[in-house]
Design goal:
The chain has 189 residues and is an alpha/beta fold. Helix content is 34%, strand content 21%. It has a single domain, classed as Rossmann fold, CATH 3.40.50.850. GO terms for molecular function: hydrolase activity.
């Protein structure tokens, strides 16, 4: 009996984030999208399942409204024919979607998670994956976030936020890995 391959979950790699950067928001992990492209290639080569998650904004000024250019997926992460695309309207890819049902129907126990942003949709999806009993692997160099101002006016760098999110998830909700480790695990099988 063969062990099912892990599934790659690619979260919100959409052009709205390019708009944020153009507007002056500072991010970390400038090579994250290249690492996502590497993961996509590895999963495609191996014939492993891929789930593309898109965020659809619901507020009138959202960069993620389907009628706006920011809704479009970045070219490097565009799905290929036959790959699943799931649209969500909240932070978690499991809420209001059939992602869990699709994973269970495919007998998939391990999910590899990447995308944007580390402390929002990636974190929420990763927490839920762990809580639902999936073996979640969060790819640290294939996700990114932006700097933020805290409730007391403190400025938090994107690097600090990214590191804290990884620390919060590590061990309890997910195993933190690199794209290279995930790709090497395919080569070892």
């Amino acid at each position: 009996m063969t062990t099912p391959l892990p599934a790659l979950i690619v979260i919100d790699v959409q052009r709205a984030f390019d708009e944020w950067e153009t507007a002056g928001k500072r991010r970390n992990n400038p090579d994250a999208v290249a690492r996502i492209a590497d993961l996509l290639q590895a999963f495609r080569t191996r014939g492993a399942p891929i789930f593309h998650i898109r965020h659809e904004g619901t507020k009138p000024n959202s960069s993620f409204l389907p009628s706006r250019p920011g809704y479009a997926v970045k070219d490097e992460a565009r799905e290929q024919p036959g790959e699943t695309v799931i649209v969500k309207r909240v932070n978690s890819a499991f809420i209001g979607t059939d992602l869990e049902e699709r994973l269970r129907a495919g007998n998939i126990g391990t999910v590899v998670i990447c995308g944007a942003t580390t402390n929002h949709c990636v974190e929420t999806t990763t927490r839920m994956a762990g809580n639902l009993g999936f073996d979640a692997r969060l790819v640290r160099d294939a996700t990114w976030t932006f700097e933020r101002i805290g409730p007391d006016g403190d400025k938090h760098s994107a690097e600090e936020i990214h590191a804290m999110t990884l620390s919060n998830l590590n061990g309890e909700f997910a195993r933190i890995v690199t794209a290279g480790e995930v790709i090497a695990s395919f080569a070892a099988k």
